[in-house]
Write a structure and sequence with these properties.
The complex is a heterodimer of chains A (578) and B (207).
Chain A lengths: L2 E9 L3 E6 L13 E5 L4 E12 L2 H8 L5 H15 L1 E13 L2 E4 L9 E3 L3 H8 L7 E7 L9 E4 H4 L4 E4 L6 H18 L5 E8 L7 E3 L5 E4 L1 H4 L4 E5 L2 H6 L3 E2 L2 E2 L5 H11 L3 H17 L6 H6 L2 H8 L2 H14 L9 H13 L1 H11 L10 E2 L4 H10 L5 E5 L7 H24 L6 E7 L3 H4 L8 H8 L5 E7 L7 H6 L2 E4 L5 H7 L20 E6 L6 E5 L2 H28 L4
Parallel strand pairs in A: 10-20, 10-21, 11-18, 11-19, 14-15, 14-18, 16-17, 19-20
Antiparallel strand pairs in A: 1-2, 1-7, 2-5, 3-4, 3-7, 4-5, 5-6, 8-9, 8-23, 12-13, 21-22, 22-23
Helix pairs in contact in A: 1-2, 5-21, 8-9, 8-16, 9-13, 9-14, 11-12, 13-14, 15-16, 16-18
Chain B lengths: L2 H6 L7 E7 L2 E6 L12 E4 L5 E13 L11 H7 L7 E13 L5 E2 L11 E5 L2 H8 L8 H7 L4 H10 L1 H6 L4 H12 L6 H12 L2
Antiparallel strand pairs in B: 1-2, 1-7, 2-5, 3-4, 3-7, 4-5, 5-6
Classes of the chains: A alpha/beta (578), B alpha+beta (207).
Chain lengths: 578, 207
Amino acid sequence: MKILGKVVSGSLNKGIKVVLHADESIESYPIGSLITIRGENYTYLGIITDAGITSDDTNAYYMVNPRISNLVKDLLLKTSKDVLRTQWVEIALLAQSSGGNANLADTVPCFASSLVETNENEIREFFGTENRLNLWGIGYPKTPKDILVEIPIDVKKLVSLSFGIFGKSGTGKTFLGNLLAGYIVMYDLVSEEDKKLKLLIFDMHTEYALELKDNMGNPIADGVAKIFKMHFLRYTPDEEIARERNLHLLKLNLRNITLDDITMIAPIFGVSPAFLQYLRGYKQIISKELKLGDLWVIGLLLDETLVDRLNNSEDGRKILDQLSVRLNMDRDFISNLRNRIYERIKSKLGVGAAQAFITQSTKLRRIMEYPFTVEEDPISEIVENLVKKDGMHITISLGKYEKEMPLYMLIANLIARKLREKIIEKSLKGEELETKIIIFLEEAHNFLGRETYRTSPFGDIAREMRKKGVILCVIDQRPSELDPDVISMLWTNFVFALTEKHDINTAVLGAPRSHLFEKIIPVLRNREVFIYGQAVRFPVIVKIRDYKVAEDFFKNESRKLASKIEESIEMLRKQGLL
Amino acid sequence: MTSWDYLFRRKDNAVGEVAGIESSKIEIYVYPEHFDKIRIGSIFLINSDDVKPIGLVLRLAHTSRYGSFTPMRMTRSEIQRAYPDLEKYHMFVSTIIYTSHLGRDQKIRHFRASAPRLHDLVYLVNDKELLDAFFRPEMWDFNFLRYFFDEGAGVLEFRDFLYTHKEYFQSREAEKEEILEAMINSLLTSSVDLRLILQEIGEILGW
């Protein structure tokens, strides 16, 4: 056992300082690496949170003194580096083990305890071993020297409560999301849990339903829903993708859009607060007084241009027909509806409200550029799948609308609301949900932010639905913008590199002695993630396993499953049961 | 016969004798005819009975033996012609710092042993073979410099030491890395400012 250094000072709360042996190179001790300290009674596991060199000015001057030759400088370094400088690492203690029992560290190693290389057995002892039942290898721990044993993630524990994936753009959130989703699918297939797991993945960039992309946008691997397409229903509002890649087309049913939905997306369109203040009144007038009922959103947005556009599509003409019936007005006169609404608002709510209606409602008209319907109800179909034991996992991929945040928010809200209603309905009937639903929510701060958490259906889900079997996988690059209640609900956290101080503080908040890990987060490399919480025994930094390897594994498993199903069908056929 | 025995074989080889001892500093009376050969940093070996103390010259002094001095207004050759025995009335004294010793086994060790006695004869170590034995008893070893510096020598005395032995060190240029390594190892723990020492080495030896 090579001794790499000695414990010289520190505390549990501030971290332990270890001075490295003179022959060690500080460059071999990257921040975030796992290390082992042999104490008198315990073996300790820690993470390097800082590293440095100390030297006094006199010693430092040797190295820059032009009157000392390079040969002499080299020899000085060779012979006297222990005198010239002290190399140290600061370590956050994670766990302590004695006699095979590993627990969170609540003691510190004795003075002059030895820093040694972490070995594979210790990793297994502290973190467990992949068993492909509940424990699945997520990636290799970051250690000074490579260790070829993976840290397993406990999928059973992961899906018992909400969890979060945080990190800047391009750090690996989507790779991890796909990997976790794959493990959840696999776990669901091999486990004998009463409740089947159902994934609902809001897939902004279509990397779960189709292919993951590199930074240049080139496809590099199949997404989890494509690999397990037998188990997924893949929806998209993008007609072209739906047609060409065989996904289900998802249209917005305008009847389902609520006041809250409009309120939530309005700021994105730059709608004025005054308009939002009057919105309830507008709805009242359009819906009740003008009798448009659940088509009130169309009334809010309709003008001559929109009428022309509606006339150009089948769905549009159906809307105009329905408006015509409800208004008891010839279709040709519908373009005058806006004036009627204006006059009614003016007389009921005043000139200010009417002016706000005219100037602001046009800003919302982009809603009508999204695929819409007033007849189909894909949302109910999605929700039914999620609550049925033999239902499918769902992805909602935005395709070409990936930058259309309002569309994403509308779809997400519509599904969340319908799902919540369905669960409450079951609950009122005294029925339990047959499934456990895990909602992957990208850009989660749009739904669970400080301002939206109380009004968004996802906020309701986060608050009320956990006990009923709905949990969230919150994915975001700005965790500090999430409501603190949401953060406190996350029991496992995956934190990739973040640079903004508040984001870092928020992302590591639940880790034991969280302040010690704040220094690590900004320097994490791509695919390196800090994991802590329920699903790992101890906090750890892991280099997420290469998704291409996981993809091959998932594909193999998927093929095996498909052939098993085919065999079963064949057998049933032979038995005359099919 | 060892090289050391060869040095001691004739008492005429002696350059002086011990005139006083105070702690690590030893006063050597230098015979006048040898005074010109002595430099700061020269290595003296004292032929005591048992172990033989070795030291490095720290200071040279030339004074009147009886305390009075009379100006003569003559050149050195005029003085020698006029007063051929004048030097009998002068003191040529060198102060050395006791740094090392030659043991009974004829090996050099760079730490101090027993003190010499008054009138023990003193020999100058300047033969290449003897210098090898001194600087590299087994491997290059400059621990004698720690005594030299800690007992009063400074950077300037070290500069003189280097010039005194420049020829020797340059003859060992092929081994400069080992020499420097040993020197640094020895001096890191001494009180001297190593930066200045290393600068002197760079300047004088070009290493």
